[in-house]
Write a structure and sequence with these properties.
The protein is mainly β. The strands form four sheets. An eight-stranded antiparallel β-sheet has the order 3-2-5-6-7-20-1-4. It starts with a helix and ends with a strand.
């Protein structure tokens, strides 16, 4: 009888211990839930950054950035994660949301200078755009571009359709063909020629009235003090220089700097379809391409 009582007592102790563990676990879980809230991102227009970069969200609380988490985007533009647990107090007091591009791996806990989207919270929602002062700080609606085909770096006249320069020759004398707003730190402009379906850089620059950073494909002669390139030598694999740019395209993109990709970034600001056949030294217009800009919302529960 004493043995049976002892077994019964031990069973009751075990049952009590299990109940206590469950209660503590539930209490802990409830406590965590009360400390965090969800931030939901609904963003379209982003692109895959590749293996060496990630997107990271930030809320601005008390004037300081607080990370909301890192995510990637696939080839279809889908975010790898859209819901993020954030400290309840930080989220409630947040005045703005900012999306940055960060290196991967990232050893710096602070935001990079590459702010691509931002928006102020109004109640639960923040409408995100590149034009916000915490992002690129411009809508680019005043941007405009012109270009000509010519090869000033060579004495030959038979290769004139192998050079692309963002110049305006409408008045007879070369003037700047681009009207572009200043970019914040972390961003630069880059020109591109679409040659046989392949984008080839004409150079990186910050001002439309000076030369761009390099001329790896130009000839040995002088080039004008404007962004552009002659495609005369050092052709990339699959292409042959000199070439004929007729039927291709001229593009101005906005690129993160530093830039982890040799391809144009998603912000393809100005696009000009080159006629086929084209004429050299004729000024052609470019079209503003705001449809390439990402947009979205950040929602705090």
């Amino acid at each position: 009888m004493r043995k049976i009582f002892s077994l019964l007592k031990n069973s009751q102790i075990k049952l009590f211990s299990v109940s206590l563990v469950v209660a503590l676990a539930f209490s802990s879980c409830k406590k965590d839930i009360n400390k965090t809230k969800d931030l939901t991102l609904n963003i379209t227009g982003l692109e895959d950054l590749g293996a060496t970069a990630r997107y990271e969200g930030w809320i601005i609380t008390g004037g300081n950035p607080v990370s909301t988490g890192v995510f990637t985007v696939n080839a279809s533009g889908q975010l790898s994660k859209t819901n993020f647990e954030v400290n309840k107090s930080d989220l409630a007091n947040a005045t703005a949301f900012v999306l940055t591009i960060e290196p991967f791996p990232d050893t710096d806990p602070a935001p990079s200078a590459q702010h691509i989207l931002a928006g102020d919270f109004s109640a639960a929602n923040a409408s995100l755009s590149i034009g916000h002062s915490a992002a690129l700080n411009t809508t680019f609606l005043t941007a405009a571009g012109k270009y000509v085909l010519a090869t000033p770096s060579t004495p030959a006249t038979t290769d004139e359709l192998s050079g692309l320069w963002f110049i305006n020759l409408a008045t007879g004398s070369p003037t700047a063909g681009l009207n572009l707003p200043a970019l914040p730190t972390g961003w630069k402009y880059e020109g591109w020629a679409l040659i046989s379906g392949k984008p080839v850089s004409t150079g990186v620059f910050t001002s439309s009235s000076g030369a761009d950073a390099s001329s790896p494909f130009s000839g040995t002669g002088g080039v004008p003090p404007f962004p552009g390139e002659d495609f005369i030598m050092n052709a990339p694999t699959g292409l042959t220089f000199p070439t004929n740019l007729s039927g291709g395209a001229a593009v101005i993109s906005v690129e993160p700097f530093p830039d982890n990709s040799p391809l144009p970034f998603l912000l393809k600001l100005l696009v000009g379809n080159i006629p086929n056949p084209a004429s050299d030294h004729q000024t052609y217009n470019m079209t503003l391409n705001t449809t390439s800009f990402p947009t979205g919302t950040a929602i705090r529960d």
